[in-house]
Amino acid sequence: MWSLPDIVRMNNEAAQAAQQSQFEKDAAKPQDHLCEVCGWSSKETKADYGYVWFDIFSDDPKGTIFVCEDHDGYTGSPIEGYFNCGECDRVFIENYSWERYSTIVDECEELCLPCALKRYLEDETNWIAPDAVQSVVLDPDAPSDLLFDPANGVLNLAKVQHLIGVKMPVPPGIAFLENLEFDAATGQMLATTSSTFSAGVGESAALRSIHQLAEQGFSRFLIILDAAYQFSVSLGIYVGARENERILAGEEVIVQVRKAA
Fold it and tell me: What is the pLDDT of residue 251?
């Protein structure tokens, strides 16, 4: 016998499937709708193309865009306020707030944040050994685009990539440990919502956090810009989920032994 939560879940899934199907059906018949761009100037023109669009918060479609031949790709991809991901080939809304939901990779390819994060995680060279980091700097004018230079052990916070949006689900393979927040204009670490520490404090705090990872037994980590607000950004420290579970389990054993003693 099904429990009530199962029925609720099934009803929600059925509703989402029905809505998704309707979006796809609407997009397949653009001539039944008007061009949205023409509508901005109070013109009524039948659409020639329909696009189902998404956001970064789930795989469920959020709506449909309709455009005529003249305006398909004229003010954006396919229209202003949206972009086409070069990896999954879906159309995404650019943003709901101050944070853009895409990033540019390889100087030209625009990816949605989930696809950019997935690609970043799959590249083993992006993972950093905490005990290899000798210093942390904030140098946006550095000639190298490297976040971490293994040759000299320098990690440059100015090169951290924006790969996670506020409230965006993260893959199960990584675990968030902590974050540091910085003023978006000055780069100084936030002391409160309206004040900052002096220059260099954020870099020192980041280095301490990284060295603590090594002391705790973590073999590698990631540092990711995981929130972009109007006036500040968050730099999050992430580790592998399995390693995090193993270390947490070991710490729990140590606590239990101490209590027993």
Answer: 59
| Statement to judge: residues 47 and 160 lie in one domain | no
**40 and 67 within one domain:** yes
DSSP states of the chain: ---HHHHHHHHHHHHHHHHHHHHHHHHH-GGGSB-HHHHHTT---B-SEEEEEE-TT-SS--EEEEE-TTTTTTSSSSSTTEEE-TTT--EEE--SSSS-SEEEETTTEEEEHHHHHHHHHH-GGG-B-GGG--EEE--TT-S---SEETTTTEEEGGG--B---TT----TTEEEEEEEEEETTT-PBEEETTEEPPTTHHHHHHHHHHHHHHHHT---BEEEEEEE-SSEEEEEEEEEHHHHHHHHHHHHHHHHHHHH-
Q: Tell me, rounded to whole angstroms, the distance of Cα 152 from its chain centroid.
A: 29
Please give the structure tokens belonging to residue 129.
């050994």
32-42, pLDDT tens digit by residue? 999 999 999 99
pLDDT digits (tens, 9 = 90+) for 51-105: 999 999 999 889 999 999 999 998 789 999 999 999 999 999 999 988 999 999 8
CA distance 200 to 196: 11
In a domain, residue 39? The reply is: yes
Q: Can you give the residue range of the structural domain that contains 180?
A: 127-248
Listed as ranges, residues in the chain with pLDDT below 70 are 1-11, 13-15, 17-18, 251-261
